[in-house]
């Protein structure tokens, strides 16, 4: 989903100013979501117990 938002942004952002602003917002949200998931995955594996 995150890379899909970025692909759509870079493909369709040059059509109009409205599209640019909206798609940029979704692109940034996708990047933020990806970074959050990377962080949470690291926290999960750092604190999980393997017995």
UniProtKB/TrEMBL annotation:
Belongs to the ADIPOR family. This is Uncharacterized protein. Its main location: membrane. Keywords: Membrane, Metal-binding, Transmembrane, Transmembrane helix, Zinc. It is found in: Membrane. One of its GO terms (cellular component) is membrane. The keyword Cell membrane does not apply. It is a multi-pass membrane protein. Zn(2+) binds at residue 10. GO terms for molecular function: metal ion binding. The chain crosses the membrane at residues 28-47. Pfam families: HlyIII. It comes from Bracon brevicornis.
